[in-house]
Amino acid sequence: MELGIAGRRALVCASSKGLGRGCAEALAAEGVELILNARSADTLEVTAEEIRAVHGVPVTTVAADITSPQGREQVLDHAGTVDILVNNAGGPPPGNWRDWDRADFIAAFDANAYAAIALMQACVPGMCDRGWGRVVNITSVSVKQPIGVLGLSNTARAALTGFVAGIARDVAAQGVVINNLLPGLHATDRTVGLDAYEASLTGEPAAEVTARRHTTIPARRYGTTAEFGAACAFMCSSHAGFMIGQNVLLDGGAFNSTL
Ligand code: NAP
Questions:
Q1: Mean pLDDT, to the nearest integer, of 211-222?
Q2: Protein residues whose CB sits closer than 6 Å to any atom of ligand 1
Q3: Dihedral angle of Cα 224, 230, 233, 234, to the nearest 10 degrees
Q4: Residue 109, class by beta-carbon neighbours within 10 Å (0-12 exposed, 13-18 middle, 19+ buried)?
Q5: Average pLDDT in the 128-148 region?
Q6: I need a surface site. Which of 1, 25, 100, 117 has the fewest CB within 10 A?
């Protein structure tokens, strides 16, 4: 399917690896010009070079912490016109709810709610003026189904989900489409780290934790970053104009429900 977004410009946050990179690659495959961001400049540049080589699209890189006001300012200074915004940042650390204090919650909110809100505030008005825009916020299955050790994620992402429900409907008439994409378990560094954390709690080898977690998913495997990126690219496409304020779950069937 031709997605109708060749020549558009996309800012993809936290995109040197994992799900963000999957989204960047899928957009590049459609001829979208990219602004990529991550903190580590070296890894980011390697990713950018690989995407330029494979897809032949212009790729600008901005090494900055997207969860800080200074980092966002740096990214926006380089971004220019943004037609497509993919919001993403690293997830909060796992832990026990008894141990988290106010600073932990504020940090999680800054990373997994406010960074996306601030970037929407910066980019969406221009999209409205131009009459076309797409925003995909990478959130988590944790907004539908709480994850015990990820209480900070459960909390912060619920806040972002509430904000998006309102803003998406407010700007839909101006051609701006805002949705959330909810990953279940995908094969990325983040999941390797969480499997290792669970192994440290249970005493199992990490590989056994991974194998056991595969069995909890009807698809019997973790998702791939390419599958995730393809879903994101569709949500950024010209065909997604009637998809407003949705929370799209991509989890191999792990969330057990009829609707
Ligand atoms: P990942 O493989 O660890 O990749 C994270 C990417 O984000 C890297 O490119 C990293 O580069 C960048 N990044 C992290 N913190 C950043 C920051 N403050 N500013 C700019 N860039 C930053 O993680 P992932 O699995 O793709 O996860 C992406 C998001 O989806 C996370 O919020 C995660 O919690 C959520 N999620 C993932 C899964 C899953 O199964 N993978 C499931 C549910 C939710 P640098 O380290 O160089 O900055």
A1: 97
A2: 14-20, 37-40, 43, 65-67, 88-91, 138, 140-141, 183, 185-186, 188-191
A3: -130
A4: buried
A5: 97
A6: 1
